[in-house]
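Recall that a protein's primary structure is simply its ordered list of amino acids. Everything else, from secondary elements to tertiary packing, is in principle encoded there. The following example makes that idea concrete.
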Amino acid sequence: MFDALSSSLRASLRRLTGSGRISAADLDAGLADIRASLLGADVAAPVAARLLEQIRERAQRSEIVGGLGAGERMLGILHDVLTEVLGGSGRELDLRERPATILLFGLQGAGKTTTAAKLALRLMKEGRRPMLVAADPRRPAAAEQLGILAAGIKVPMHREPVGTPVSEIGTRAIAAARRLGLDVVIIDSAGRTALDDELLEELRELRRVTKPRERLLVVDAAVGQTALAIAQGFSGAAEPTGLILSKLDGDARGGAAISIAGGAGIPVVYVGTGERSEALERFHPDRIANRILGMGDLATLAERVREAEIGPGADPSAEARTKAAEARALRGGMTFDDLLSQLRQMSSLGPIGQVVKMIPGMGGMAEQAEAAVASGELKRTEAMILSMTPETDPSQGREAGKAGEKRSKAPVAEGGDAPEPLSG
């Protein structure tokens, strides 16, 4: 995500940090580079212009021209401006009511139904009891899709017959949630290929009867500059309280987030980062600014590792095994089974390129990591380890590698040396 913007902004900053001092001409050239980076990432032109004004004003206030350490200070300014434009400190959903209602809306094809299921799963992991509601009165296929997704994550779903007015769908859904003791109602509203009066009137009706505190606009990240126009089109009828940017993993530019947050003032709350049901991340503006500028995002990486260790379906003993493996690695005794476990854990954290970018200073290696995965390097390594014969325990005269025990007690060689031979 944000690949194009990230690489071009880092290139601009490298040019500015090439010398200890920068001139007024250097600053103008650097700002021109940053403007080109923003527009190339599909940031709406008015938003890009506003960003540049803020950057220039802060650079002048900081007396960067002619001063020492100009490049590092420019990096700090750019980080602060990006963080503020993307929403500052971020925000949490307002779910105080019981049941709390969340209305999702957006154009057809934005990934709204899939996002509804992802949001339900995320809230369920946080201890909530959500219900999904199919609120498209004309398209039975939309309700069918939501029903399949709801069954997959084991979340109850409410639907009404085709042709039921949305006001009745909303009223009956809230009543059903109260009856079942559920505390969050996520309404998947109808979508259209383009905004029209009928769609906007349906949203007004849903708002009137369900009174949602959270009204979240779902936008496909690939729409780029058009995102601002979409947000403005929905503003009158729905008054969005937040934005969910879907399919961000499939768009390297990421301009939609900056365009909507900076142009319409709608904060980004979540981003979709893949097809898996778990691939919905909380949006932290400061962390995203770090990623864009190549400063890493260890906080999000730590959260992903934690979720992989203790999330639903996770192995209860995984955390203990991880700590034991870390202790062995510190003593120089990392085994091939430890290496295999770490490779599998890394794969469970999401696309390898995304994971690498979260490590400070490693953003430039994301493409090489993705290429290694695409060429099957990790799979080949895993196959090599699995094909090894378990080590024989000399004291007991039997194999020590049965039924999940260690495949080999021999440490993984460091520095490119060959590992100790495995006995068969």
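The CA atoms of residues 91 and 269 lie 7 Å apart. The chain has three domains: 3-85, 100-294, 303-399.
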